[in-house]
């Protein structure tokens, strides 16, 4: 993301490199209130790659005239020692801000406003050497200054236009207790603060209340109706540059995705496969076909049933099981059906396959964190907003409830060292378990899923009781409700952290040296599946040498 103050050509190249790295990331979803099982507006996000997983609560409050807000670059990767924060500017503070939650991509404020994110590459011609804002800056400022999705879009859009957008293309799914929107933004091109032109191109589309949105590393807005002010918002003069560049003509539908992201990142199915899979999981009756990156799925769909938080979590645990692309099958899955595929540099890929890659599932081992949020209009904000947060890969994490009104989270979740093993970090507990599972996936993964469910099922079972009590406290004294939910959230997070470290070491002791430790202290060695032994020609060398010996 270090792409400031050098030539436009160099910037464009750097922007593509950044976007390529960032685009290893993210499969967010949005669920309208009438598409969810309990009337929640839901937003979800997998942050796939090495991004800042530390939860920091930034208090809101009143501010004096003349206060400024520092703007830093590369905030999303602040846990990387070789990517130090660098102040790139400052902007005036507003009179009042809301408390919000800072992480790689800031995701929640105390008004039940939620945001999920994904990256796309955008056009080289839109890269800006003078822009100040990155997407995480816009998210932080939007959450600090807005109460609703519409307000946040207005805040972020105006800031991007005024101060310039320095990032590649980005999409945000933004939810509040009443509605969900999809916001997309990219650069303003050869812009500077004195050019008199907007420093960004952006648009937003409202998600129908009874539908679901899914996106994955390519622009997803599609055609927008520039005259529908109730369901569409957009930047100043959004058609001017596209028309001048020949990307769009008067009278044509204004297809934001085709205009600003004509060549999506990655191999042909990098993004589209995840969209295809998620859409078919939530709306199987629609039987969506496999499409490549140049073809678009609908912006949103009606799910076959109303979706719960658990349903979205299950989508996030998917490895394409039961499809032609099932990552738990075939030689690449190894003898034990492991779905993880490590990154493979192009120089070691076979000739003729340099542009190809492994299938990309929704559940990814290199995920930093993921969440599923609920915003509910029938509760006070402090109670109605809850974000179910999981460290590391979503298939092997435990989602813990974090209420939007809490004033603290445990140190194990707010501090970590990512470049060295950190026994004091919750993230490392989950990363250790996920990595250990690759040793014997067929045996260890079911144990992880059972342990994961034991925590999450209890959180779900207790949710109504906890929230009913919090609402009663809120009626008498809002501060008491906040204290109660803060204590509950911290207790849950501490229990999960401590329990998962215990579980990690339990797995290390049980599964080692190819064996499985038994309760009586003996060790059982199950070996390898017969079909896999046949596939790798088990005993073939012995047979060859015996034939050679007997022929003498």
Helix content: 25-40%
Q: In which order are the strands of the major sheet placed?
A: 14-1-2-18-19-20
CA-CA gap between termini:
66 Å
- Total domain units: 2
* Beta-strand proportion: 15-25%
Main sheet: strands, sense, barrel: 6 strands, antiparallel
Low-confidence stretches: 1-23
DSSP strand tally: 23
Layout of SSEs?
Elements: H1 8-22, E1 29-31, E2 41-48, E3 56-58, E4 61-62, E5 68-73, E6 86-92, E7 96-97, E8 100-102, E9 108-109, E10 114-120, H2 135-145, H3 149-163, E11 169-175, E12 180-187, E13 200-206, E14 212-214, E15 223-224, E16 232-234, H4 240-244, E17 254-255, H5 256-260, H6 272-282, H7 309-315, E18 367-375, H8 381-384, E19 386-391, E20 400-403, H9 411-414, H10 426-437, H11 441-476, H12 478-510, E21 511-512, E22 515-517, E23 523-524, H13 530-535, H14 540-550
Antiparallel strand pairs: 1-2, 1-14, 2-18, 3-8, 4-7, 5-6, 8-9, 10-11, 11-12, 12-13, 13-16, 15-17, 18-19, 19-20, 21-22, 22-23
Protein architecture, described:
The protein has 14 helices and 23 strands. It has 552 residues and is of the alpha+beta class. It folds into two domains: 341 residues, no CATH class; 97 residues, no CATH class.
